[in-house]
Specification:
The chain is of the alpha/beta class and 202 residues long. It contains 8 helices and 6 strands; from the N terminus they run βααβαβαααβααββ.
């Protein structure tokens, strides 16, 4: 049987509303964020059938675990069985975590001068490189090869790179993929299908 992976992100956080990049820091879900996750869960429940036939993986960061907990409650999955995996954490940007783009640009103008909105994260002087993130996510993919039905709750940038690896995209194309808090993704048969909360893309 072909492996199916549903890839979800966490709901909106307070930092999201402030335009702050969270990285390895954390920020609480907003009320809108909690409602987004509930919508994810309702849609997911209609797609997966019996939740006990699935394995759920989550980034261990608080915003992701909170989202995963809401999903588990709504689909009837035992949260204690969720596998927390650090390899699914958001891309670390070191000193830039918690800052806005303007704050970063003001303090590190030379590091962001020749970058763009898709790859600036990797110019942090003490953050992760794209290659190191790709390596940890490749390791994660290798570790789940025997799992048939997988649900993973991760992050915006990490989710882009996961989908990029799955589709064999180069760095630039991987980083330009959609990130939306009204969409999650089904990965199967080496293709990726977006699942919209508006029920328009099933």
């Amino acid at each position: 049987m072909e492996q199916i992976i549903y890839l979800l992100g966490h709901g909106e956080t307070i930092y999201n509303t402030q335009g702050r990049y969270q990285g390895e820091l954390d920020s609480a879900l907003t009320e809108d964020g909690k409602n987004q996750v509930k919508q994810y869960a309702r849609m997911l429940k209609s797609l997966i059938g019996d939740p006990t036939n699935w394995t759920i993986f989550s980034s261990p960061l608080g915003r992701t675990l909170h989202s995963t907990e809401i999903i588990c409650e709504m689909i009837g999955y035992d949260f204690s069985k969720v596998i927390q995996d650090e390899r699914l954490s958001e891309v670390a940007v070191g000193s830039w975590a918690g800052l806005t783009w303007k704050e970063i640009e003001a303090s590190w103008p030379n590091l962001v001068k020749n970058t763009d909105m898709y790859n600036w994260y990797f110019n942090s002087p003490d953050g992760e490189s794209y290659e190191s993130v790709q390596n940890r996510l490749n390791d994660w993919f290798d570790s789940i090869k025997k799992e048939r039905n997988v649900i993973v709750v991760s992050h915006g940038l990490t989710g882009r790179i996961l989908r990029g690896i799955y589709s064999d995209l180069d760095k630039n194309d991987a980083l330009k993929q959609e990130v939306s808090q009204s969409t999650f993704f089904k990965l199967s048969n080496k293709s990726i299908r977006r699942v919209s909360l508006e029920f328009d893309d099933l």
